[in-house]
Amino acid sequence: MIIDAYDSLLKDQALQQHLLPDMVIRFGPMPVSKPLFKWLEKHAEVKQIVVDADCSLSNPRT
Questions:
Q1: What pLDDT shows up at residue 58?
Q2: Whether the Cβ atoms of residue 26 and residue 2 lie closer than 8 Å to each other
Q3: pLDDT score for 3
Q4: What pLDDT sits at residue 60?
Q5: Which of 10, 40, 44, 58 could bridge 35 with an S-S bond, Cβ 3.0-4.6 Å?
Q6: Cα separations (Å) of 39 from 34, 53, 56, 57?
Q7: CB-based burial label for 26 (10 Å; 0-12, 13-18, 19+)
Q8: What is the rounded end-to-end Cα distance, in angstroms, of the chain?
Q9: How is the chain split into domains, by residue range?
Q10: What is the DSSP string of 14-59?
Q11: H or E stretch covering 13
Q12: Could you tell me the CA-to-CA distances from 42 to 10, 52, 55, 56, 57 in Å, in that order?
């Protein structure tokens, strides 16, 4: 499932409690969404994969 309206969804505290993906795949730089940044910080156990503009893969936590 792809969620592209995450900013609005993550502002709902009740809904936030039920949203826990297996993995986050991000294309490009970190979005400037404060709700997303706080949610990712809170759920550090969720695996993240980042695909950079130069088509390289990285782990944002290493």
A1: 56
A2: no
A3: 72
A4: 62
A5: 10
A6: 8, 24, 25, 22
A7: middle
A8: 26
A9: 1-7+22-62
A10: HHHTT---SEEEEESSPP--HHHHHHHHHTTTSEEEEE-TTS-EE-
A11: helix 13-16
A12: 12, 23, 28, 26, 23
Which residue's structure tokens are 């936590």? 61
> What is the tens place of the pLDDT at every residue in 4-50?
777 888 888 888 878 788 888 888 887 788 888 888 888 889 898 88
Secondary structure letter of residue 8 according to DSSP: H
Nearest CA among 37, 41, 49 for reference residue 7: 37
DSSP letter assigned to residue 4: S
Contacts of 51 (CB under 8 A, 6+ apart): 25, 26, 27, 28, 57
The amino acid at residue 30 is: M
